[in-house]
Amino acid sequence: MVFGSYLFLFAFLPVVVAGWWLLRPASARIVWLTLASYFFYAWWDWRYLPLLLVPTVTDHLIQRALATRGGADDAPGGVDVNAAAAGGGAEPGAETAAGIDVAETTLAEPAVKAAAGRGSRRALLVLSLVIDLGLLGFFKYAGFFMDSLDGIASWIGLGRPLPVPEILLPLGISFYIFTTISATIDVYRGSTAPARTLLDYACYVALFPKLVSGPIMRLSQFTPQIRRLVPRLTWQLAAAGLFLISCGLAKKLLIADQLAPHVDDLFARSGGLELFSGWAAALGYTLQLYFDFSGYTDVALGVGLLLGLRLPQNFDSPYKSVSIADFWRRWHITLGAWLRDYLYIPLGGNRRGAVRTGVNLMVTMLLGGLWHGAGWTFVVWGGIHGAGLAGHRALAKRGWTPTWTWLNRLLTFLFVTAAWVVFRAPDLDVAGNVYAAMLGLRGIDSAASFGARVGLWSALALGALLIFVNVAPSTAHLQPRPTWRWALLTGILLGAAVLAIAAPSPFLYFQF
For residues 199 and 31, is the Cβ–Cβ distance under 8 A? Predict the structure, then answer.
């Protein structure tokens, strides 16, 4: 079931929203929303429901066990919470008449217990990560790694001895696995408490507006809302929710889906592209992905508001960024924050010198690229962004970056656009063809050849959309109100989007 379908808009969503607000008490509403979320996921393929249930149950149990074994092992400032609590009031070096260290005798047993507690907590954390990453690794990457090993074996003359399994990628597994990992690590660190019940945690993991493509919501963002549910649907919530849904569907159905066939055709004929048509392919996908992902984010947040729930913002005019780091603060915001908090900082962040910082950035983005898909194109895309982050950081420290905002924005946009080529390409050969065309190595299009490949109206549309993404405000900054003007705008956008529905069209991030 996809957001841009008649089934979702006129059957599933109205029934879920109505049931949510009509049911009492709060526990019944949470049961209803959890079951609706499982139904939403099962509509794709009910056989994969256990893959959603396994990390939900195991991680909740592990989080409860972590909470019963004390606070975080790694407190801010590097102070061990358990050891500090065990420290009592004796001063090190204090002696009795017999010459025995008082601190040693009073702290020996608690210190042993604290060490044992830390060990058991780390074991629980490792168990959780093994389960979660094991599921993600098998279902998303087993085929990729086996195929890569076969390719290496064939290259060195050993043939292709390994069977490559055909495994269907479970919908949204990258998102809900990252959700459960973040919750377990946060409980382990002591920065959040576990969910009160398995039902609350199941609702958090499976919440259908964010389940298959994010945003990646933290447990600390969800728990306060589920404990104090909004009692009724207000006009303000309804106006904001419906506007975001209509705006998101318009972006997806009226813009992204209209660009898609032209972009697909250009990439399919990558070997015949020249300078201008090569840039048209790159810019076309850059805009298609922008409106597709921005549209999904708007719909997800809008549906959340109709339920009285606020999902974290995930998109904020990323093509207005003035650096690659700024881009990752605006594009897929929750993924960028996840990679920073659970990968980059634990690797050492920027605390161990310039070289180590560059290595940490590269490792983080390589894994971030692999998270998007099991293919070398995604790894290369992650490497490009890692190199961009490290390179810009090094240049900025030396004062070698431009001082003009417009130039920083332009350079960042061109860098991101070039990187999207390998992200979109089905393989590195196609990406190489498009890059060669963009660099002018395949010649310059004549008016006739450009018209045949791209077309005048398509070129004008690309130009208009490029202006739009650079001047239009982000929907995150709009404040729709229950007035007739906002109602009229919402109705126009929603009506036009609904009329454009031809067949269910999944959002691009569904494949990740």
Answer: yes
Give per-residue pLDDT as tens, 422-479.
999 999 999 999 999 999 999 999 999 999 999 999 999 999 999 999 999 999 888 8
Amino acid at 469: V
Task: Give the separation between CA 194 and CA 58, rounded to whole angstroms.
Answer: 13
Cβ pair 121, 188 in contact under 8 A? yes
DSSP readout, 157-197? TS---S-----PPPTTHHHHHHHHHHHHHHHHHTSSPPPSS
* 235 φ, ψ (degrees, to nearest 5): -65, -35
Q: What is the pTM of this model?
A: 0.87
Q: What is the dihedral of CA 74, 76, 78, 79, to 10 degrees?
A: -80
CA atoms within 13 A on the CB side of 206: 29
Low-confidence ranges of the chain (pLDDT < 70): 70-117, 147-165, 504, 510-512
Collect all residues with Cβ–Cβ distance below 8 Å to 464 and sequence separation of at least 6.
Answer: none
Question: CA 216 → CA 53, 212, 241, 424, distances in Å?
Answer: 18, 10, 19, 23
Which residue ranges make up each domain of the chain?
25-84+110-227, 235-323+401-511
Residue 425 and residue 419: Cα distance in Å, rounded? 10
User: Would you mind telling me the total number of residues written for the chain in this entry?
Assistant: 512
Angle CA(238)–CA(244)–CA(246) in degrees, nearest 5? 100
CA 265 to chain centre: 28
Residue 372 is a catalytic residue: yes
Q: Which of 372, 385, 392, 477 is catalytic?
A: 372
Q: Is 54 exposed, middle or buried (0-12, 13-18, 19+ CB in 10 A)?
A: middle
Report in angstroms the alpha-carbon separations of 27 from 32, 86, 119.
Answer: 9, 39, 36
